Amino acid sequence: MDKAALKERILGLVTDAEFQENKQFPMFVIPPDKMHALAVRLKEDPDLSFDYLFCLSGVDMLKYFEVVYHMESTTLQHQLVLKVRTADRENAAVDTVCDIWRTAELHEREVYDLLGVKFNNHPDLRRFFLEENWKGHPLRKDYVDEVNIVEL
To answer: Are 71 and 57 in contact (CB under 8 A)?
Structure first.
C-alpha cells in the first residue's frame, strides 16, 4: 500500500487522527483512547498486516509526552508512524501494545524508566536501566540530578 492509500485508510479508521507530513513515513497523531484498538486492527487486517513494531520511543514535549510507534508490514512492505500524546505530565499514561507486538514490552519499560510514562495493562512495568530506588526520570527536560550532572 502506498503512502496516499495508507493515509486514506488510517483516516478512515480513526476520523479524529491528525496526519503529519513526513518524507519517509506516513505519520499520524492518534487519540490515546483509540490507539490500542487501532493497533489491533493494523496487525490483524490482511490488507494492512503491520506485523513488526521496530521502534517505540518517548519524547518530552514539555507540556506532554509523545509515545512514538514505528511499524512495518514485512509481507506488504509498507511502514507507518503513529504518535500518542499523554493527557498530562504528572500522570502520563497510555495503553500498552505489548499484547499485540511482543517487541513493545522492553521498549515500554525503557520509556517508563527514563521518562516516567506508564503503560496501562503492561505485564511487568518496572525500571529497565536504572535501579528501583532511583529518584526521577533522567530524560525529562525538567530533571535535575545534583550529584551526577555535568555542566559546561
So the answer is: no
